[in-house]
Amino acid sequence: MSGMVEKTGKATWLIHLGLIIGIGIVCFPIYLAFVASSVSQAELVRPPMPLLPGDQLVENYTRALFSGINAPVWRMLMNSMVMALGIAIGKIIISLMSAFAIVYFRFPMRGLFFWLIFMTLMLPVEVRIVPTYVVVANFGMLNSYSGLILPLVASATATFLFRQFYMTVPDELAEAARVDGASPMRFFIDILLPMSRTNIAALFVILFIYGWNQYLWPLLMTTDPDMNTIVMGIKQMFPSGDDLTDWPLIMATALLAMLPPVMVVVFMQKLFIKGLVETEK
Amino acid sequence: MTFKGWRLPVLLILPQALITAVFFFWPAGQAIYQSAFIPDPFGLKSQFVGFGNFEYLFSDPYYLASFKTTAVFSILVTVVSMSIALWLALMADRIIKGSGTYRTFLIWPYAVAPAVAGVLWLFMFNPNVGIASWYMDQMGYDWNHKLNSGQAMWLVVLASSWGRISYNFLFFLAGLQAVPRSVIEAAAIDGAHFWRRFWTIVFPLLSPTTFFLLVVNIVYAFFETFGVIHTITSGGPQQATTILVYKVFSDGFVGQDLGSSAAQSVVLLFVVGLLTVVQFKFIERRVHY
Q1: Do A19 and B110 touch (CB under 8 A)?
Q2: Which residues does chain B have with pLDDT short of 70?
């Protein structure tokens, strides 16, 4: 049956070739960055740059990690890690709770709460940067982890996702819990949370990448180089004069910046795809 | 089935409600409020101007140009990233063995931050050390995106599209795999060749996915490409790559023109609202498919 549509022999090879070319194009910028992070500055400034890795790999990465330009890269990696984990875990916890309240209770102003949260669904921080910055500055939260994390925790995607999921949970489970005399919190912790764990994991993958890759917000929030996250810190490594750019160091930093989220996507591919499809539903 | 009581649910919803109120509604309200004022040069007091900031904005040639730039930019990003992704997904859909490996290699650029993607492309096209600019120079084409507006636009479009291919690829592949095999087999038996099958059967069945991706990619190009623009061109040369979100930033933080920046935020609020409505109208429809 499949022979009818799936061409064999030459045609299949052409498709494989096409895919390999596609992957080559998609991966080339990263390969080039890798090569640049493994050679010396002198080799780079004489174009064309080499296309095979050099012998300065360890030297460049050590220099980036432990001295960097404005701040050592390990410090920026740590800041990014705190921010990404804070955003992902914070969003998941407050969303699990608020979705539980919305689905399993009827309380005054429930509809209002729902719409207030729901309205934040699509409003990115980029749109309201100046006033949000003022609010955070008034709280004295500039150059702090809470200032980096809290404004980005206010989003409804996760709440919406958990709401959808809870609504598919059979009524009988909550009914049984109530008949057994279990409190709502018992039901939430012993039954609902374990049932949600794949959803939680999938969402965590997406939110971790989201948090890690933030750029504009940390750019405004962190004037102290020691609080810079790695994604925004790279741009700060460029000098004002173009000819002095330390490309090997910057490219090493760029690769270090993409490593954690890329690892998450590659090693948790199934959860990643599930999360991606569900957050967009 | 619901539980009784109202204290517990209010307590449960409170953290999110508070954070949303403080970091979302308060700033959004501030933006709307400030958009009606012009602060004096010393920032001591503001003068009420009503819709003055908006009137000024929509007669400001730079702002109108930024609208056009945003439109051109987002259309190009959407078209470039979606067509490459569809091409790759069509091929990946046709092979049986090894498609998992190809998928892995194609999806991981999703995890690369737009700002990092910007740095990678800046490096390739840097007029002094970039490999792409060097080869173009050898072929007699002068590349300098720091001076040439058109080249600057293409560079930010390419860098923004590059990171987006993975996402579009995944959704196109899922859409293609949902097309019933039997329909395609039947068309093949009738002698329809690949492109005919694609245009008459696959593409129409794929249209929900395509429409969904169109909206999502436009939202992406509007709001999430700030990092690309900031790292590669900083909106230049001569504001040729200043998209709306970048202008809110550069007027508000660099130019310290708070009234105008607030008015621009409000305009963007409307744009977001509009796109949300479009998306939800569509999602409602998709549920009934």
Answers
A1: no
A2: 40-44, 280, 282-289
